[in-house]
């Protein structure tokens, strides 16, 4: 999904706002403009030095040719950096600008436009542009199934990193056992333990109404065989009044 050309095209317009020195994104944005070739894009990229800002980019675009195609791009960039705009508003502005270019380049543009509209469903979960772009880079959705919303009841399986910016009525955190969460490797370094604690906080705060933190009483270790598990220290750190302890028995098969 994220490797599709039209997805990369649209996101490139946001990436140059977040980082005006992003040479690859500038190349992609400029080569979409009718009449702008590789040489013109290369000359523009020569400006991408220390201290280069979006304002300087808009000024540089004003000196390039053909202005018929570059003027709308400059106007878009000025709109995208306007204070007070939400991320969804920025994405909609970029989509409005890009849609005519998309229809000229691809015969199957209706399908591609639907893809871009689905991308908006991800955008709506974020307030900050940089957070949105960073999360897409770290853990991009693999397909449309990752960004569309089913119309019936369903269970979402998610990593904690993928869950950033999302909320559900009920959340189940699994494997909250010592040695798993926090992981063994984090026990020796304080900074790694704090990162594990931060992840637990992120996971726990995804729940709107119900939160269940689960760990198996018995687990299997390849070296030791069957072992008894202890609950995560993060559970023990919580005030007792916040917890309601449950124990379930599973019948043998």
Give an overview of the whole structure.
Strand 1, helix 9 (190-204) and strand 2 (207-213) form a beta-alpha-beta unit. Strands 1-2 form a two-stranded parallel ribbon. It has helices at residues 5-18, 23-31, 38-45, 54-61, 67-80, 87-105, 109-123, 129-138, 190-204, 233-236; strands spanning 168-173, 207-213, 218-221, 225-228. The protein has ten helices and four strands; from the N terminus they run ααααααααβαβββα. The model has no long low-confidence stretch (mean pLDDT 83). It is elongated.
Give a concise summary.
The two termini are 41 Å apart. It is built from 10 helices and 4 strands, in the order H-H-H-H-H-H-H-H-E-H-E-E-E-H. It is 46% helix and 8% strand.
List the helices and strands and how they pair.
Layout: H1 5-18, H2 23-31, H3 38-45, H4 54-61, H5 67-80, H6 87-105, H7 109-123, H8 129-138, E1 168-173, H9 190-204, E2 207-213, E3 218-221, E4 225-228, H10 233-236
Parallel strand pairs: 1-2
Antiparallel strand pairs: 3-4
Helix pairs in contact: 1-2, 1-6, 2-3, 4-5, 5-6, 6-7
């Amino acid at each position: 999904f994220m490797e599709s050309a039209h997805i990369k095209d649209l996101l490139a317009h946001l990436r140059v706002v977040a980082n005006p020195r992003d040479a690859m994104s500038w190349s992609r944005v400029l080569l979409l403009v009718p009449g702008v070739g590789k040489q013109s894009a290369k000359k523009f990229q020569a400006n991408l030095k220390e201290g280069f800002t979006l304002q300087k980019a808009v000024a540089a675009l004003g000196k390039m040719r053909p202005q018929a195609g570059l003027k709308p791009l400059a106007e878009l960039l000025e709109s995208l950096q306007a204070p007070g705009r939400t991320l969804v508003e920025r994405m909609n502005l970029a989509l409005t600008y890009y849609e005519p270019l998309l229809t000229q380049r691809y015969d199957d543009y209706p399908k591609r436009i639907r893809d871009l509209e689905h991308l908006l469903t991800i955008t709506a979960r974020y307030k900050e542009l940089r957070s949105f772009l960073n999360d897409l880079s770290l853990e991009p959705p693999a397909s449309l199934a990752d960004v569309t919303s089913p119309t019936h009841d369903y269970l979402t399986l998610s990593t904690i990193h993928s869950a950033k910016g999302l909320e559900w009525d009920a959340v189940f955190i699994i494997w909250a056992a010592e040695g798993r969460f926090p992981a063994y490797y984090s026990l020796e370094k304080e900074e790694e333990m704090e990162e594990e604690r931060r992840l637990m906080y992120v996971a726990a705060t995804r729940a709107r109404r119900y939160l269940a933190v689960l760990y198996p009483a018995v687990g299997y270790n390849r070296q030791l065989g069957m072992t008894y598990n202890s609950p995560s220290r993060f559970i023990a750190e919580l005030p007792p009044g916040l917890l309601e302890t449950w124990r379930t028995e599973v019948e043998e098969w």
